[in-house]
Amino acid sequence: MEKEIVYVIGHKSPDTDTVCSAIAYAAYLKKMGKLNAVPAVFGDINPETQFVLDYFKAKAPVKLESMAGQKLVLVDHNEKSQSPDGIEEAKVIEILDHHKINFICSEPIIVCAEPVGSTATLVAKKMMADKKFKITPQLAGLLVSAILSDTVVFKSATTTKTDIEIAKKLGVKAKIKNLKKFGIEIKKQKASLKGLDAKKIIYSDFKAFEAGGKKFGIGQIEVVELKEAKERKIELLEKMAEIVQKESFSFAALMITDIMNEGSEILIAGDIEPMEKAFNKKVVNGSVYLEKAMSRKKDILPPLMKAIE
Ligand code: MG
Ligand code: MG
Ligand code: MG
Asked: N or C: which end of the chain has fewer CB within 10 A?
């Protein structure tokens, strides 16, 4: 008899790490006979991830509308506010992640979390430690793409030695000659805002958080130059103000990260005080530029959380 299906799934607004880690970890769990694992995704695949899937001729994960009633392995997130809809009525049996832990459950489960640059690093690490498992060129390609994407081609403050070492090994297996060049090619896929409305831009990589009894949201887009996004600042801020209202957020921020110049223009709608306090900089006309800030979880979130609490 076939074992019960367990979906391996990442966060809402799926990114390349969420999608590729789900595919690869499900393949590993299934192959090793640990679980009848099936990769899944919630929401639309972004252009960057689609480029990676096409490049390595990989199938997109199953698209689920709700998690209710399902058994799940969560990858690349653990906070319920970032999980697909229906998480409250699902059974999470395992978590594999590289973010701060904010997960409460009533039963013991498997949790593997390490402060590395991507979940894909942890998936690859598990595969490499397991002598019985052979990483195919396709899986290596998906995983190295996810590492390059999440670490912004090793430029993000989240990058560790482990990420770089593992990416190099995967790059060889996937026959990628120049990792940095390939990484920039991947990042450029999502870098154009043309044809995207403000809502799509804001929600393309958006996460909700809670601190000090307040809810807030931070989105992030990566661009190769700030000009195009700056031209749409008013439109973006208007949409963000609507989101603040609708979601009862104290504020919403959008990090527009310039991957070439390594810094972020931060747009803020709602209460600007936490942001000003966190970075000791004035918000002017709804935005502030932060040099070297490329990572939401390392460069933005910790000072912001401190300012709020
Ligand atoms: Mg992610
Ligand atoms: Mg990640
Ligand atoms: Mg990310």
From this structure: N
Q: Residue 282 C-alpha to ligand 2 middle, in angstroms?
A: 30
**pTM of the full predicted structure?**
0.85
Which residues are in the CB-under-5-Å shell of ion ligand 1? 15, 17-18, 76
Q: Look at residue 14 and give its three-state secondary structure.
A: coil
- Interval between CA 2 and ligand 1 midpoint (Å): 31
Which domains, and CATH codes, for the chain? 5-188 (3.90.1640.10), 198-308 (3.10.310.20)
Count of Cβ atoms closer than 10 Å to residue 285 Cβ: 9
Centroid of chain to Cα 22: 12
Q: In this predicted model, which residue has the larger pLDDT, 279 or 188?
A: 279
- Say if residues 221 and 257 touch (Cβ distance below 8 Å): yes
Nearest ligand to the CA atom of 15: 1
pLDDT, tens digit (0-9, with 9 covering 90-100), for 282-294: 999 999 999 999 9
42-73 pLDDT, tens digit per residue, is 999 998 999 999 999 999 999 999 999 999 99
Tokens of residue 9, six digits:
């799934």
